[in-house]
Amino acid sequence: MPSFLHPDRFLGTDPALVAIARPLYESVARLPLVCPHGHVDPALLALDERFPEPTALMIAPDHYVLRMVYSLGVPFERLGVPRLDGTPSPADPRDVWRTLAAHWHAFAATPTRAWWEYQLHEVLEIPERLSPATADAIYDAIETRLAEPAFRPRALFERFGIEVLTTTDGASDSLEHHEKIRTSGWKGRVVPCFRPDAACKIASPGWWTEIERLSRVSGRAIDSYRAFLQVLAERRRRFRELGATSTDHGVESPFTHRLSAQAAANLFEKALSGTADAADQAAFEAHMLVEMARMSLEDGLVMQLHAGSLRNHNPWLAATYGPDRGADIPVAVDWTRGLRPLLSECGNDARFRLVLFTLDEATYSRELAPIAGHYPAVRLGPPWWFHDSIEGMLRYRSLVTETAGFWNTAGFNDDTRAFLSIPARHDLARRIDARYVASLVADRRIAEDEAPRIMEALAVGLARDTYRLG
Amino acid sequence: MPSFLHPDRFLGTDPALVAIARPLYESVARLPLVCPHGHVDPALLALDERFPEPTALMIAPDHYVLRMVYSLGVPFERLGVPRLDGTPSPADPRDVWRTLAAHWHAFAATPTRAWWEYQLHEVLEIPERLSPATADAIYDAIETRLAEPAFRPRALFERFGIEVLTTTDGASDSLEHHEKIRTSGWKGRVVPCFRPDAACKIASPGWWTEIERLSRVSGRAIDSYRAFLQVLAERRRRFRELGATSTDHGVESPFTHRLSAQAAANLFEKALSGTADAADQAAFEAHMLVEMARMSLEDGLVMQLHAGSLRNHNPWLAATYGPDRGADIPVAVDWTRGLRPLLSECGNDARFRLVLFTLDEATYSRELAPIAGHYPAVRLGPPWWFHDSIEGMLRYRSLVTETAGFWNTAGFNDDTRAFLSIPARHDLARRIDARYVASLVADRRIAEDEAPRIMEALAVGLARDTYRLG
Amino acid sequence: MPSFLHPDRFLGTDPALVAIARPLYESVARLPLVCPHGHVDPALLALDERFPEPTALMIAPDHYVLRMVYSLGVPFERLGVPRLDGTPSPADPRDVWRTLAAHWHAFAATPTRAWWEYQLHEVLEIPERLSPATADAIYDAIETRLAEPAFRPRALFERFGIEVLTTTDGASDSLEHHEKIRTSGWKGRVVPCFRPDAACKIASPGWWTEIERLSRVSGRAIDSYRAFLQVLAERRRRFRELGATSTDHGVESPFTHRLSAQAAANLFEKALSGTADAADQAAFEAHMLVEMARMSLEDGLVMQLHAGSLRNHNPWLAATYGPDRGADIPVAVDWTRGLRPLLSECGNDARFRLVLFTLDEATYSRELAPIAGHYPAVRLGPPWWFHDSIEGMLRYRSLVTETAGFWNTAGFNDDTRAFLSIPARHDLARRIDARYVASLVADRRIAEDEAPRIMEALAVGLARDTYRLG
C-alpha cells in the first residue's frame, strides 16, 4: 500500500533543504530501533495477548491525548478514565473514541498528531484521516486489525525492528514479566531499568509500603541504613542479571549532597521511626543521588536523572483519578549548583555515566551543554516529554550542539507507555535529525561527507554507546 | 492609492513559504478587529473630538517610542514629556517630531517601526518614509489629515472595522465615558474591563485614596473586609452592566494563596489602621487573586493575569516624570508554584476562565503551555508588550503550540493606548499567524485544508470565545 | 591561493537569503578589526617572538578545544596540560596534536570548528582538512609557516588589519608590556583594560597578595578603605595614560548595592584584619560595582560587567590543573533586581557607559534588552563565550533587536586569548550579522538601502563608539 503520509513530512519548509534532508533521513529510516528508556509494561510482551479495542490501546495509555482533551473542557468521565475509588468511567470505548475525534482539530501542530497519524496510517494501515465523520469506520477498521496475529505485541515488536526495549521498574518490582520473557524462548530483547525513587522518599505516605515490598522481594529485613544500601545493591545486581544497563531517578529538583554515613544513617532511623519530615526527605534524596552515582561507578549501570517536574499539580485530580493524568507541571531548575556535589565526586571518572533530562529549556545552553561539554561522565539526554516534538527537538539541537557537540548527547529515547507509538516517535526523531544535519550541510558548517556518520550516531550509535547496550 | 508598504511584508523570507502565507493572510486581513484588552482612553470615543497635532497623537501616548529615544541619550525635556510637578516640556511638538525623525534609524527591526509605517502609510496615507529630511512635510501632512472628519475617533473606529474595543478601568472608575458612549446613540461597542489592583495594595501610599474613591463611587462605607468584598462585587456588577466581560490583574509575581476569611479580615483591619507592611500586602494580594477568581467563577467575568513586570525600575525617572515612562523591567516568574493554590480551587471548573500573560519567555514552554494544556479554565494570552513583535510572536507560537495547541490560546490583544496603532497591530499579528500556519502546511504538519479554520480562530474566533465577546 | 573555505559559508541555508547576505558580508569583510575586549597576552606583541610549535599556538591557549576533548574522556595528561604542582604533561606536542585530530569529528557544528578552519586554511594557508590521516602533515606545514617572518605576532597583527586590540589586565598589573609596545616605535594600537576583581574579593585567599601587589605597583600603603579607593583611582589613571578606555568586572551574580562610606570602610577594616567572610565579600563586591560605576562616570572609562559564571565548578580539576580549564559553568542571573541600585545612581547619566554580558540567554529578551532599551548608559555586549557561535549570535539578534534595536548594542568582541583566532571570530560574526540583516531585508522589515549603514555599525561603528575608541 502506498503510504498515506507525505514522504517529506517534517523534513523542513524549504525545498532546497528538504532535498538535502531526504537522503539523510532515508539512510537511517530502516535502522533498528534502540529504545533505552521508556514505560511500556513488560507484561505486554510477556503475555503477548491480542490488544483490546482501540481506545484501550491508543487513548488510555496516552496522557498526551488525555490532557489535551481534558484541557478543552471534557471531563475524564467522558474519556474512559476510571476513578481512583474504583468507579469505572460510564463512557463506552467507542464513545471515548468519538469524543477524541470531535476534538481532533485541537491537536493540529502537536507531536501527538504526528505520532497518531503514523500509528493510524503506517502501523494500522488506515487510509482515512481521523475526523468526526470517519471516527466509527476507523474504530471498526482498527478492531479488525487487532484480531490479526500480525498485530500482537511480539509480532509488532519484530515488525518495528526493535533491537532492545528498556522498561522502567521500581526497585521493589518482582521483575516476573522480565523473567518470563527471558524464559519464553522468544528472542526479543526486553530489559528492565532500576528506579528507586519510592524507596528514597522517606517522609511520603507510601514509603513504608515500598520498604516492605523491597524487604519481601529481597528476602532481607531493612532495619538499618546499612541494610537498606545492601538491599539496593542486591536489587541492582538482580536487575543486571535480567539485562538492565541503567537506573533512572526522577526528582523535582536536581539537588545533590553528600551526607556523612552517620548522618545518612540517622535520617534513615528517623524514617524508620516514622518521624522524618519533608526537609529530612529532601536531604536524604539529595544524598541518595550521590550514593546511587557511587554504586553506578562500581556496577556500571548508567544513571539517568529526570529533574524538574512538579508532580500532581492538581490535587483534586490526583485525589480523584490518581497520578500520571497529565497534571505534572515543570519548574525552573538549577543544575549547575545542584549537581556540583555529585559531579565533584564522580564526574571526572569515565567509568561513571550520567544522562541528564530537563523540562527547563533555558538550561540547555546555560547549564547542560556546558556541563556535558566538560565532564567526561555526563551526556545530555534527548528532549524530554513536552519537548519531544518537532520544534522542541530543533531547539534542543540549536541550543546544545554548538557547546556540547553531538558526541556528548545520548541519542534518542522514545520514553513512551504507548507501545504503538514507538516507531512513530523514532521516525519523527530521525526526520528532525536529518533536517537539522541538512541545515548544517546547507550552511557549509559540516561537509556533505560527514553527515552520514552523524546521522548513524543520532539514530542508533549514541543510544547504544551511552546506555552500554552495544 | 496603491499601498506604499510591500504587500508581502513580514510574511517570511522564503519565497516558497510566502506563497503559502499570502492567501492565508488575505483570508483574514479584512475580518473585523476584536480588541479584548487595551488601554485606549474611553474619553476619546465618548467625546469624539478631533485629534490634536501629530506628536500628541502618535508620540506622547506611545511609551515604546519614548523609551527608545530616551535610551539613545535624549532627555524627556526634548521629547515633550511634562514633569510630574507640572513643569511642561519646553520642546514644541514639531521639535519633538523632528527629534524622533533624527533617531528613526534606531527603530530598524523593531515592532514600533512596523506599527508606525502602517499608521503613517495605511491609516494616514502619507507616501514618504519618515526621515530627518521628510519630518516637517510629514508633520504638516498629518495635520491636514487630522482636520478631516474622516479622521475623528469614531470615524476611524468604524473604518478600522473594530467589532469591540475593551478599555482598562480602575475598580473605582466612574465609567462616565462608557456611559456616555452607551447613551450617545453611536453604535460602536466599547466596553470596560475591571482592574482592582490599586484597591489590593494595602501598604502602598495610594491605597487610602483608592478606598475612598471606591467608597464614593459605590456609595458605601468600606469599614471592613466584608464591606470591601461587597463593594468589589457591586463594582463588578456595574462593569458588567456596561458590557464588561473581563477583569485584569497586574502583579510583579503570580503568587496566589488562600487565606482564611478571618486572616484576610485581620489584614484588612491592619490596612485600615495604617499599619500594614509589604509582607501583609503580598499576602493580601495573593489572597485577593484567589478571591477574584472565585467571583469570576460566579459572575462569569474572564480573569486576566499579567505578571512579571517590576514597575518603576528607575526611581529618579518615576519621581520626576511619573509612571509608565518605559522604565518597567521584567523579572523571572514561577507560574507553576505561584498559581497552584488558585488553580487547585478553580482550575477544573469550566465556568471559570483565566488568561495568563508573561514577559518571561522561558515560561512559555516550561510552565504556561503545560498549564494551559491541562487545566480547562486556563488559556494563554498572546505575546505581551516587548514580545508583541515579529520574532516574539514566532517564538510564542513555536514554544506554545506543540504543547497547548491553538485552542488553548486566547487570540490576539492589541494592548495599546495609541488608538491609531490598533489596526497596525492586528495586521501585523495576522501576517505573523499566516506565516506560522504556512510553515505548518509547508512542513506537512497540517493539511492545507485545515489552515483556514486555524487562521479564522487566531484572527477573531479565539478572542471572541475566550473573552465571551461573541 | 583560492580559499579552501566556501565563500558563502554560514550565510544561511536558503539560496534566496544567501544572495542578499553575500554582498552585505562583502561590504564589511575587509574593514579593520576593532577589538575592544579580549585576553591576548600583551607580551606577545611586546616581544614579537616567533610562535612556538602548533600545539602551544593553537591548543594550549584554547580552552574551547581542551574542554571538548576532556569531555570525551581524554585526560589532561594527554593534552599537554601541566599540573598546578609543576608536573609537566608527559605528552609531546605532536602527540597532543594527533589526539585532537582523532577527536576532531566531535567538533562538528561547534564554533571552534569554524574558527579553526579559518585559522588553518585562511591564516596558515593549509589546504587539507584536519583528520587523523592529515594530522602530521598539517603539523609540519604549520611549523614551516611559523618560521617565516610574516607569521610573527606584529606582522600578523598588521595583516589581520587590527585597528585596536584591548587586553585584560589586573588592577595591580605593572603594564610593562604595554609600556614596551608604546616605546618600541611600532605603530600597532594595543591598550589595557582595568580589571579589579581580585582586589574586591576580600574574603578570598589571594586577596592579601593582590593588595600587596597593588600597594607595590602604586607605591602607596593600602591601610584604609580611603587609601584603597585612592589607589584604584590612581591605577585607573595609569591605565588611561596607556590608552585604556574601559574596565571589566566579572561576578557570579550581578548584585549591586550602595553601602554608606562608613559601612564600606568597616568591611575593609574587617578584611585587613583577616576576618571578612563570604557575606562580607558579597556585600563589598556589590558596593564596589557601584563605586566603580561612579569612578567611570568621572573618568570616562567604559564599564563592562560579565556576570553569571560559576568559576571552577570542578574542584578536583581546579586543584590539580588550576583555573580556566573549561570548568566554569553558567548559572541563572537576575539583572533586573541586581542592577537596580547601580542604575538608580548612574543609569540616567549619558557620561556613564555600562556594557552587559550574560551567559543566561533567558535574560536577553526578559531583562537585558528592556534595560538597554531604556537606560541611556547601558549597552548590550555581544553574545559571550558559549553563545559566541552561529546559532548563539542568531538567537541574540532575534531576542534583543526588536526591543533594544541595534544602536543599544555594543558591536562585536572577539574575547579570545588565542591570537590567531581573532580574524576568524570577526569574520564569523560579520557573516552572521550579514545573514541576520539579510533576513530583515527579505522580510521587508528594513529597506535594502538601510542595510549598509547597519552592517557598518555592527562590524566596526558600534564597537568604536561604545568603547570610546574612535
What is the fold's blueprint, element by element?
Three copies of one chain form a homotrimer.
Chain A lengths: L14 H14 L4 E3 L6 H6 L6 H5 L4 H9 L21 H10 L8 H13 L11 H13 L5 H8 L1 E5 L2 E2 L5 H8 L6 E2 L2 E2 L1 H4 L6 H12 L6 H17 L4 E6 L9 H12 L5 H22 L2 E6 L1 E2 L4 H7 L7 E2 L4 H4 L1 H7 L7 E5 L3 H11 L5 E3 L9 H15 L17 H21 L8 H16 L4
Parallel strand pairs in A: 1-2, 2-4, 3-5, 6-7, 7-10, 10-11
Antiparallel strand pairs in A: 8-9
Helix pairs in contact in A: 1-20, 1-21, 6-20, 14-17, 18-19, 19-20, 20-21
Textual characterization of the structure:
The structure is a homotrimer of 470-residue chains. By secondary structure, the first copy, chain A, is of the alpha/beta class. The first copy, chain A, has two domains: 15-49 and 161-466, Metal-dependent hydrolases (TIM Barrel, Alpha-Beta Barrel), CATH 3.20.20; 50-151, uronate isomerase, domain 2, chain A. In chain A, 50% of the residues lie in helices and 8% in strands. Chain A has helices at 15-28, 42-47, 54-58, 63-71, 93-102, 111-123, 135-147, 153-160, 176-183, 197-200, 207-218, 225-241, 261-272, 278-299, 315-321, 335-338, 340-346, 362-372, 390-404, 422-442, 451-466, and strands spanning 33-35, 162-166, 169-170, 190-191, 194-195, 246-251, 302-307, 309-310, 329-330, 354-358, 378-380. In chain A, the strands form four sheets. A four-stranded parallel sheet of chain A has the order 6-7-10-11, covered by helices on one side. Chain A has a three-stranded parallel sheet with strand order 1-2-4. In chain A, strands 3-5 form a two-stranded parallel sheet. In chain A, helix 18 (362-372) links the parallel strand 10 and strand 11. Chain A is globular and about 65 Å long. The two termini of chain A are 34 Å apart. Chains in contact: A-B, A-C, B-C.
